[in-house]
Structure formats: C-alpha cells, structure tokens
Design brief:
The complex is a heterodimer. Chain A has a single domain, classed as Cytochrome c oxidase-like, subunit I domain (Cytochrome C Oxidase, Chain A), CATH 1.20.210. Chain A contains 19 helices and four strands. In chain B, helix 1 runs antiparallel to helix 3. The chains are: A mainly alpha, B alpha+beta.
C-alpha cells in the first residue's frame, strides 16, 4: 500500500530549500524543528546541571552567583525549552495530524509562526546569559522581591528582564500551538474517528493544551506586573516602608499556572507511554475510558491544588488544609491511570525493544515519582520536607521521567516514521539500561538528603554541621549525573547519525501498530496521505483480537480519492 | 536519616513522615513486584501470542487503588492533626492556653536579612520595648522546656526559618509577620537553616539554636549580651558566649 501512496498523483510544488526546511508550514517539519531545538536546549540544560553538580561535589568549582544562575537556568530550560517544545511542539505537531488522519494542522502558518517565536525566545534566553550585569539567578520560580528588585538584591537587571521576556515569548509560542492542536483535533478528524476513538496520546495533548490555555493568563498578568516592578519601580510585589506590595501574590499567580503546567508536560508523556506500551505488549489499553476520564478529572483538579507549593509560605493555615486535601485527592486519578497502564502489560506478549524498555522504566519511575508526592502533599510532613532535597528528588522522578525517559521512548518508537530509518536496536537497549541506572544513581539519593533536612539550592553542604556527613552522597549523585549526560550525548550522536545514515526502514509499519500514522509512508510526504484519505473503522488499540496469525487490526484504511489533492488546500 | 528530634511536639511531624514514607515504600515495593511478575510472565519468548483478556487474578491489582484511597485518608487525618497543632491555632490562642496551664514561655523576634538572622530578645523582664532588650546575630538561646514563640519578619527578601531538629519551618516574608511556636525539650546546640532561596550566600545563612537548662538560661540572661560563659553539656568546648554575644 505504501508504494501506491508514494507514487500517487499528488500535485507537487517545487519547494525552495528555505520553504522546505526553514520556513515550512508542514507540521512534520515544524515538529522536527521543535524536536531538534528542544534537544539542543536539553544539551545546554544538561551541561549546566553537570557544572553545578560538580560544584556540589567539590564546592568552589563555580562561584556562588554562577551556581544560582545555573540552577535557575537549568530548571527553566528543562521545563520550558525542553519538555514543552519536545512533547507539545515536537511530538504533538508530528503525530496529531497523522493520528487523526488530517493533512496538516488547522492553521499551518500560525504553526510555523509559533516555532519561530519559540526560536526567538530561545535566542533571547541564551543572550540573557551574557548581558552586562550577569544572568538572572533568582530561581526558576522567579520569586520576588529577590527577582522584583534585582538591582538591589541580585545585580542582574537586564538579565532578569530578558529572562522574563524569553519566558513570555515561549508562552506565546506554546499558546499558538495549543490553539492549533485543539482546533485541528476538533475539526479535522478523519471520517469515522469519533472522540472516543482518538488515540490516548491525542487526548492527552488536547487536555494538556486546554490546561495551558486556562492556566497561563494569570502568570502572564503576573509577569507583566513583575516587569513593571523591575522597570518602572511599581510595588506589586516589592515591599518598602509604607508601600503595600505582597510577594505572596506572585506565588499564587505563579503556582496557579505552575501546577497545571506540570500536567501540561506530564499528559503528553503518559500518552506516549500508552502508545508504546500497547504496541509492544500487543494488548489494548486496559480501560481506555477510565484513562480519558481520569485525565480530565486530574486536569480539572490541577487548578485546585496550587497552594501546596506554599504551605509554609504565609497562606491561611486553614486553606493549607483544603489544598492538602485536593492534593491528596489528585493522587487518585493518577493511581488509577498507572494501574491501568500496569494492567496494559498483563496478558500481553511483551517485546523488550528500546522504546519499550524506556517506557517500562518511565512507568516504574512514575510510580516512585507519584508516591513520593504524598509526603509533600500531606501538610503535616511538608512542614519538614518543604524546600528540601526531597522535593528535588520528587520532581526529578516526575519531570525527568517526563522530559527524558518518555521522550526517548517516543523517539525510538516513532523514529522510523519520522525519518524512514532505524536506530540500532542493541545500542538502544544498552542506552536504556545505562540511562536507568545512572538516573537512579543521581536522583534517588535525593530522598535521603531530604530526610536529613538538606535544603534545596545550597551551593555547598559543607557550611552546616548536620549536612557535612552527607557530602559523599553529593559525590555519588554527581558521578551518576555525569555518566547520565555522557550516555545521552552518545545517544544523540547515534540519533543524528541514524537520521542520515541509519538502515532504511522499508515497511511503513515496522512495529505492527494500529493507529493511523502507521498507514502513511515513512517518512510521510507533504500533506501526508497523497491521493488517499484515511477512513477509521474501529478504536485505536485493537490488539489481541484476531486470532494468532494477525494479532492486530489497524484502526482504519486508506481510501483512494476521486480527485487529486492540491498542495495548498489550506 | 532524620536529625534528632529535640522538641516536645516534633513527634507529630515525625509520625506523619514515618507513616507516609513507610506507606509509599510498601505500596511501591508491592507495585514493583507485581510489575516484575507481569513483565516476566508475559515476555514474548514465553508468551508469543497475547491473551484475549487480562487474567482475572491480575485484574484484582485494582485493589491498589482502594489501598491508596484508604492510605490517603489516614495520611490526611494524621497530617492535618500535626498541622493543626503547629500552625492553625493562632499564636495568641496558644499563648493564652499556655498561660492558663501555667506553663512557662519566652518570646523572641527574628529578622531575616541577606544573609543572617537577627534575634531580638525582650531581656530579663520579658517585655519588648524596654531598656533591657538586646539583639544577637545568628543566635537563638532558649530555655529547655519553655514554650518558645518566634515572631518572624524580613528585612529584605524571602527567607525561610528552618530548625531541622525541631521539625519546624516557616517562611519569613517582607511586609508580613509570621509566627512559629515550639517547645525545646533537650539541651544542646543545633543549627538553623534558611530554606528559601535568598541570594548568592543563601547556603551560608546559618544560625544556631542553643537550648540551655532553665537556671543556666537565667544566669546567661542576667549577663547577656556581654557574657563569657560556657556550659559543659553543649557538646563541645567551641561553644562559648563571648563579649558581644556571638557564639563560637
């Protein structure tokens, strides 16, 4: 079938290099641009992490200003310039139109624009590192008054302004992307593709985009107020004698955005895991509906939990109890989702491909990440754990799992589709195991440091008597982190090598997967389906249904169109 | 792992910590074992074709959800209890209770600044705003067995006043007063950390909590802040109050 698609009579427009690779409106090219930019930023964010981790093992390697700057940029980069562009911009762009049988996004030009805004935001972020006065160093949460009065407390006025500007542009870019995703899925699904037949990945991207749309406005308002404080000297968050600024207000605005934001990147990652796990365990999702409803429930609840970041930060102590209850409540839809994910393996015929190994490790790490949220969500134990390494360990078990393990699972899974080539499977397996070992080596000891009461963002543990004895733990974590990054750098070499020189993947569906994107040729041409159109006949995970010879049914089939498709129908 | 608990009520926090940690460790280990079993049993080499349904025994794994819900409820109850005890009751109310019960208490004010703690003492008369008030840098001296009321304010940015050994922590917020209450139950010298990023020297914003026996505290107070005395039960001889009230 793929040959038929490839040779079908699509009207071809000769595209210039610029049009094809730089200013393309093709969702796959834009997705790859996001992916590659995200990977480049990940190298930057990872390198910063290694540098300050070395400092933690050997204090004095950096100055304390550098240390704070690197910690700040590491957090911001990994969240906003790695996880979001890769999971939403990258996978979302590449997969959503293919999975719903569309030819492109609803607004292709807006899509291109969103990438270039993102690109500019990355450039500004990097510039902010080198401006006179130094880079911003007030933590990725940008808490005022430290950040609101930088000339006085940090000495990085221009750096702070550029940092905020870069953030604002990044949000604008992701907003455009989110609008595109929602519109595309609501209006451009293939015939027969009802909402309850959508692949879970698409559901997750939609809920994530909605969360982002609803949560980002307060933060943008807050960011404008913060910029006014910095530039014009207003007193929204700054406190001076006789002035009524309130730094806690920023924390509310930030975390009202910040908590849904975590799920904005978590949901697409869970979506990737469901696609990967069903394919390689040859079983349908244990309960599709439960996952969809639990995701929506968790998405709604995520707007009601923000103050759990502020239990000991001056909020009304009674409201802390309310937020503690909602926070613990939100663990219920997630524990359901994870149980469904676990049972999706059960009864399967599990193939331990690289993608599957990464998905399994990600699943196991999510269990640790989710469970370790409970001592933090419970207000009584958070008195002690708040702002300690326990928090650091917790969010590395969630966010690293999201941004690295799930992402790499997705890369291995869709690599043949994206580039028409293969990554060496043995390499992939070694890569998965090394990543798993080194990752735990650097992340798990954080729980012990947290129990010992080690506060976050300390340049050195050696200043405090009760922390000195844990210096060896920092050394262990640093060694693991260095090895972890080294492993990923080797992977990136193999990744780029395979894009250009990997073995060709002839089959459009090498993993015998069900969803629509596997009907398209690899890599799919511009407008994806040539002179065919996909028609959906059944749900997305029809595995283990058709006897022993063919254990899966594709979600739909390609139907020949009567008229050829023009290159610019949108 | 937890540092020694030296306060009367730290056990309330410790109880929640232990319950939550042991709970998640047990649930985590059980989940991992179930997953290893599933991954091993249904590996492709052993099970070349998928089953048409999940074995009914494995479906019972859903009980983990119910376990989690029950565990969540217990945790919430214990956690809210501890929180209620430390923070929900207004300080005035705790103070009144303490007075009614005839318990002793001291009051201090702590001001956080980049990058040190200033501790203001009301002096011998126990009243702020009188002649015998005095200030010490980075040193909070309190008598054993007394209720200690700490009023926290900030001179510049956010800080967080954290005494790991007493299991208490609260943010120090510019423009606001926040409060802590604890009851030290063991003499000794302990560290006070800053737990909210406050700038370049955040990691060096260290204070000491020194808990003295009641009569020693009174003796120290009589001569403070110009005393030069040491107490043998402060674990090493480095701790001396010297002129100017610094601790060494």
């Amino acid at each position: 079938m793929s040959e038929a698609v490839a040779s079908a009579g699509v009207i071809h427009h000769e595209e210039t290099f610029l049009r094809k690779y730089l200013f393309s409106t093709d969702h796959k090219t834009i997705g790859k641009q996001y992916l590659i930019t995200g990977i480049a930023m990940a190298i930057l964010g990872g390198t910063l992490a290694i540098l300050f981790r070395i400092n933690l093992a050997h204090p004095g390697f950096l100055t304390n200003e550098q240390y704070n700057t690197f910690v700040t940029y590491h957090g911001a980069i990994m969240f906003f310039w790695v996880a979001m562009p890769i999971l939403l911009g990258g996978f979302g762009n590449i997969l959503i139109p293919l999975m719903i049988g569309a030819r492109d996004m609803a607004f292709p030009t807006l899509n291109m624009f969103s990438y270039w805004v993102f690109f500019v935001s990355s450039v500004i972020l990097i510039i902010s590192f080198f401006v006179p006065g130094g880079a911003f160093s007030g933590g990725w949460t940008v808490y005022p008054p430290l950040s609101a009065d930088p000339g006085r407390y940090l000495g990085a006025n221009l750096g702070t302004v550029l940092f905020l500007l870069a953030l604002a542009l990044e949000f604008a870019s992701m907003l455009m992307g989110g609008v595109n995703f929602i519109t595309t899925v609501l209006t451009m699904r293939a015939k027969g593709l009802t909402l309850m037949r959508l692949p879970i990945f698409v559901w997750m991207e939609i809920v994530a985009s909605l969360l982002f749309l609803f949560s980002v406005a307060p933060l943008i308002a807050g960011a404008i107020m913060l910029l006014l404080d910095i530039i014009l000297g207003t007193h929204f968050f700054r406190v001076e004698a006789g002035k009524v600024g309130d730094p806690v207000l920023w924390q509310h605005l930030f975390w009202f955005f910040g908590h849904p934001e975590v799920y904005v990147i978590l949901f697409p990652a869970l979506g990737i895991l469901f696609e990967v796990i069903t394919t390689y365990s040859r079983r349908p999702v244990f309960s599709y509906k439960l996952v969809v409803y639990a995701t929506i429930a968790a998405g709604i609840l995520s707007f009601l939990v923000w103050a759990h970041h502020q239990f000991v930060a001056g909020i009304n102590p009674l409201s802390a109890i309310a937020f503690s209850i909602t926070t613990i409540l939100i663990s219920i839809p997630f524990s359901m989702t994870l149980v469904v994910m676990g049972l999706t393996f059960a009864g399967g015929s599990i193939r331990f491909t690289p993608a599957m190994l990464f998905a399994i490790f990600a699943f196991l790490m999510f269990i640790i990440g989710g469970l370790s949220g409970l001592p933090l969500g419970a207000v009584g134990s958070d008195i002690y754990f708040h702002d300690t390494y326990f928090v650091v360990a917790h969010f590395h078990y969630t966010v690293f799992t999201i941004a690295v393990l799930s992402t790499i699972a997705g890369i291995y899974h869709w690599f043949p589709k994206m580039f028409g080539r293969k990554i060496n499977e043995t390499f992939g397996k070694i890569h998965a195991w090394l990543t798993f070992i080194f990752y735990n080596g650097f992340a798990f000891p954080g729980f012990f440091l947290g129990l010992a009461g080690h506060p976050r963002r300390y340049y050195s543990a050696l200043e405090f008597g009760y922390l000195q004895k844990y210096q060896w733990v920092h050394e262990l974590m640093t060694v693991s982190a260095v090895l972890l990054l080294t492993t990923q750098v080797v992977f990136l070499f193999v990744f780029f090598y395979s894009i250009f020189a990997g073995a060709e993947e002839k089959s459009p569906n090498p993993w015998k997967s069900t969803t629509l994107e596997w009907l398209a040729p690899s890599p799919p041409p511009h407008l994806n389906w040539g002179s065919f159109a996909p028609v959906v006949e059944r749900g997305p995970y029809e595995y283990a249904k058709n006897g022993k010879d063919i254990d899966y049914l594709p979600q739909g089939k390609l139907v020949k169109l009567k008229q050829p498709v023009s290159g610019h129908e949108h | 792992m937890l540092p020694q608990d030296i306060s009367q009520h730290g056990y309330l926090v410790d109880r929640v910590i232990k319950l939550s940690i042991w709970g998640i460790v047990v649930v985590g280990i059980v989940s991992f074992f179930i997953m290893f079993y599933i991954l091993y049993k249904f590996r492709r080499t052993k099970n070349p074709f998928p089953l048409s349904d999940v074995p009914s025994g494995l479906k019972k794994v859903i009980f983990i959800d119910y376990v989690m819900i029950i565990f969540d409820l217990i945790l919430l109850f214990m956690s809210t209890w501890a929180w209620f005890f430390f923070f929900v009751r207004p300080v005035e109310k705790i103070k009144k209770e303490v007075q009614e019960k005839g318990e002793k208490f001291v009051e201090v004010r702590v001001i956080g600044r980049q990058f040190f703690w200033t501790v203001e003492y009301p002096g011998r008369d126990g009243v702020f705003g009188t002649q015998d008030d005095f200030k010490l840098g980075n040193l909070l001296v309190v008598p054993e067995g007394y209720n200690v009321f700490v009023k926290l304010t900030s001179g510049d940015v956010l800080h967080s006043f954290f005494i790991p050994n007493a299991r208490i922590k609260y943010d120090v917020i510019p423009g606001r007063e926040t409060h802590l209450w604890f009851k030290p139950a063991k003499v000794g010298k302990y560290e006070i950390a800053c737990a909210e990023l406050c700038g370049a020297m955040h990691y060096r914003m260290k204070g000491y909590l020194v808990v003295l026996k009641e009569q020693d505290y009174k003796m120290w107070l009589d001569s403070a802040p110009f005393s030069e005395i040491s107490f043998d039960y402060l674990d090493d001889d480095k701790i001396k109050f010297v002129k100017g009230g610094e601790v060494r």
